[in-house]
Amino acid sequence: MSDPSPTKLGKRLSLFGDLPTRFLRFGLKVAPWFMEPVLIGAWSSVFFLIAKSQRRAVQSNLRALHPNWGPLRAFGGAWCVFWNFAYTYVDWAIDGIPAFDDLARRNEGCLILTAHMGNYDLAAPLFSSRFGRTIYAVRAPERQPEMQVIREAELRKKEEENPQFRALYNTSDNHLGLVLAKLLAEGNIVAVQGDRVVFEVSPMEVEVEPGLKMRLPKGPLYLARATGVSCFPLFIVRDGWRRYRVMVFPPL
What we know:
A seven-stranded mixed β-sheet has the order 1-9-8-2-5-3-4, sandwiched between helices. Strands 6-7 form a two-stranded antiparallel ribbon. It folds into two domains: 31-86, no CATH class; 93-248, Cobalt-precorrin-4 Transmethylase, domain 1, CATH 3.40.1010. By secondary structure, the protein is an alpha/beta fold. The chain is built from ten helices and nine strands. The protein is globular, with a radius of gyration of 19 Å. Helix 8 (145-161) links the parallel strand 3 (135-139) and strand 4 (165-169). Helix 4 packs across helix 5. The chain has helices at 9-12, 19-30, 36-50, 52-65, 71-86, 97-105, 123-131, 145-161, 176-185, 219-227; strands at 89-95, 110-114, 135-139, 165-169, 189-193, 203-209, 212-217, 230-240, 242-248.
């Protein structure tokens, strides 16, 4: 396969480009810890202003969840969502230890249903050693090839440090559903997002509560039903400064 042609500078500087990520990673290495709150707030604001469609989507979701919110409050709430995403973590707490232990004890394949809530793909490497079998985390490819190179390098490093963690990409030409069904049949754990409709993902409209409908991907629950495996909801929520909470629920 031939290498993709270089991306124009404007796209590399855009929301999905690699240059903002490179600048951010450099800043994380050289910035003193006491400057984190200021820098994170400033960086979140820049990102918030650039990401117009994403900002509007978050505002729309917040107003759907809170019908009494006005435009100004939804705008502020959306900024808080971006700011929350910007924080990193060093400490964990787990809610749902019985469900977590149940998942760890099982010998058959299991599906972890998670959400795109910030650091959603980082928990799998940290907890893969607890399960005694391989966790396969499914993620979408980056939109720009330079950004994909960065992510590939990060994931390969995580795989080297955590032998029981592997990342798979959901692309239009790799028949991922068949691959995942085979992995589940072999007794592995597969972690997928159940809240994002991107690229070639087939959507379905679901009424999550009376009067509130959302478009969710069909794949995860269809995969669980087709293979007959247990599906454990698992979500990661920021609990404070440099602290995250892992919420594990009994199988659906």
